[in-house]
Write a structure and sequence with these properties.
154 residues; 36% strand; 7-stranded antiparallel β-sheet; 11 strands; Umud Fragment, subunit A
Length: 154
Amino acid sequence: MSYFKKIILIFIKNPLNIFLYRRRFLRIETIGESMEPNFFPGEFYLVKKNFNPYLFDRFDIVVIHCKKHNSIHLKRIIGINNEKISYKNGILYINGEKIVEKNVIHNNKINVSIILGENEYFVMSDNRENYNFNCDSINRGPVKVDHVIGKVII
């Protein structure tokens, strides 16, 4: 291949790769302490944008769009379609079953119970001590599927 053809391919291929990367991935910086002790302020993560948001599993870390603050946030998926979620005295219950959570800062003052509808998630921060300031399901209610931007992969 001639030198000229290699140069042309570089100029065509690199912008195409950058375009595809930006379409499929998002780089996000953690701001604030809402996801401590697992994610810390100033750390960067790679998020795979999902074109099929029905593929998320319980306890996945996702990026959601928060209308209340017009911003994006890292959150943990706790509940999925049609489940009953309760959080009482620092203990999580899903459909009445006690769930033991590790690496989470609990808050005994939170008391919430909700039944999710179709295409809804219940998301929470890992640091529940300052729940009044979080844009999670305790404060904003269930998150609709189309408000989930993607899943943290790195």
